[in-house]
Specification:
alpha+beta; 6-stranded antiparallel beta sheet; single chain; 24% helix; 481 residues
Length: 481
């Protein structure tokens, strides 16, 4: 009986593997037949150059027939070029030949996947002078904006004007990306020292410019998530998308993209050198994601200090809203017994496609247990979040045994209020004596002032001392050895 079950499983696996292999062979056969039939176009119309920049320039100028002929010639020489198949499918789509386009995208998906995982070749235009945000403007607006200007990025004759460079002329330059997730460093070739000395100000080192690239989507049913770190806003085609200027990589945004070639436009604004990272990935089957809360309540003497957990919830669906958001408590470990609830306004407000919204969860302490009042344990809450889209998500949040407060820093007028926490050292017999010693470092950077490194572990410099942490610079627990 056991041998029979194993044999049945083997037959099922063999059937599906043959089916998948057959589909791939059919796609390859159809693509080769397409190249043979379309070879007649090469006889009528020649191609000046099959270089990537030349073909992209033809597409940018909407010379579809000339671009199609060059792509056919490229694929006859290199039939395993997935990027060329994506471009050919895009050209066929724009000419209305949907069946031929489908054949090309199927072959592209086989060679390169459902989408390109990063932009391999960026074009940079800049640097241009910059103004204040409320008075600034796009330096290429007079040429019709970046979408219109980007068609000139393959031409050596395209010249623009800037006060920051010698002779006042800037041209497009190329920045190559080697791998997915690589952080690009855009550093224009400018004599910054001469400019600073001539004007006597560092403000001259601020500049703006544009990065332009392309990604390919080889299927219509692909949910794509994009992320750009280091800039406040970027564009895919004409769709504006929020960036992340502080390089926090937990925020992704969904965008509805059909199959074809899509342009990425990133506006750069920085001083001397711009660091930027563009990422793209599949959203997967689950479009609801629960992100780590920016802060959590604390525990002191069995009491929860604060009653709200700000829970960021992301909607990764490109077109559907997430409604009827529900949060339930699955399990609690340590601390006083609590219950959770949701305010009516959080329950009523849906989450828009591609957006992240803070969903407030209220904590209510039940009847206080005297045995928990002197407990030094942290509290872990396991929550389940569900909505109208996606499957339910489970998240665990830890409330640390510590004490926190807000104080005023008169030396910093831009951010006068700071959130501090005292961390239990772990080396005293009673976790809540009548009097405790609190270490107040001379600087707010307590990461280096408050403890030291010993045998690969962080230990407190002052044994038995509750350490004051600035919550803007450090999180987590410290153990005393």
């Amino acid at each position: 009986m056991r041998l029979l079950c194993i044999w049945d499983i083997f037959l099922v696996v063999l059937y599906f593997s043959r089916t998948s292999l057959g589909k791939k062979k059919d796609a390859q056969k159809s693509s080769l037949q397409l190249l043979e039939k379309e070879g007649k176009r090469l006889e009528k119309t020649g191609c000046k150059s099959t270089k990537q920049d030349h073909v992209a320039e033809l597409r940018g100028k909407k010379k579809w027939e000339a671009a199609l002929v060059c792509l056919l010639q490229t694929l006859q020489a290199s039939p395993e070029d997935g990027w060329a198949w994506s471009q050919l499918g895009d050209v066929y789509d724009r000419q209305g030949e949907k069946k031929k386009a489908s054949t090309c995208f199927q072959q592209a998906a086989k060679l390169s996947g459902k989408f390109t995982d990063f932009v391999r070749r960026w074009h940079f235009l800049g640097p241009f002078v910059i103004g204040k945000i409320e008075m600034d403007g796009d330096p290429v607006a007079s040429w019709g904006g970046i979408i219109n200007v980007s068609s000139t990025r393959f031409s050596r004759k395209a010249v623009f004007y800037s006060e920051l460079v010698q002779n006042g002329e800037v041209k497009w330059s190329v920045i190559n990306q080697k791998s997915a997730g690589e952080r690009l460093q855009v550093s224009p070739q400018v004599g910054w020292n001469d400019l600073i000395m001539s004007l006597g100000s560092m403000a001259i080192t601020e500049w703006q410019g544009w990065l332009v690239g392309e990604v390919a989507v080889n299927d219509n049913d692909v949910k794509v998530l994009v992320q750009t770190l280091g800039v406040p806003t970027f564009y895919i085609d004409s769709i504006p998308i929020a960036g992340e200027v502080y390089h926090r990589d937990q925020y992704w945004f969904s965008v509805p993209l059909t199959r074809g070639i899509h342009a990425v436009y990133i506006k750069l604004r920085t001083k001397v050198t711009q660091q930027v990272t563009f990422k793209v990935k599949l959203a997967g089957s689950n479009v609801l994601e629960v992100l780590p809360p920016p802060h959590l309540p604390d525990l002191l003497d069995g009491t929860v200090l604060g009653h709200v957990i700000p829970l960021p919830i992301a909607n990764h669906h490109p077109t559907h809203w997430i409604k009827n958001i529900r949060v339930s408590l699955l399990k609690q470990e340590g601390g006083p017994k609590v219950s959770i609830s949701q305010p009516d306004i959080s329950r009523r407000l849906p989450i828009a496609p591609g957006q992240v919204r803070i969903h407030d969860v209220y904590i209510t302490t039940k009847d206080k247990d005297s045995s928990q009042q002197s407990s030094c344990q942290d509290m872990k809450l396991t929550l389940q979040v569900s909505g109208s889209e996606g499957s339910p998500q489970v998240t665990t949040d830890s409330l640390l045994f510590s004490h926190s407060w807000t104080t005023m820093d008169r030396s910093n007028m831009q951010q006068p209020f700071h959130h501090y926490r005292t961390v239990y050292p772990g080396d005293v017999q009673c976790c809540l004596p009548s009097m405790v010693q609190v270490c107040l470092p001379r600087t707010r950077l307590t990461v280096t002032r408050g403890w030291r490194m010993e045998t690969g572990s962080l230990v407190l410099k002052q044994p038995g001392c509750w350490l004051q942490q600035d919550m803007e610079h450090t999180t987590g627990r410290v153990q005393e050895h």
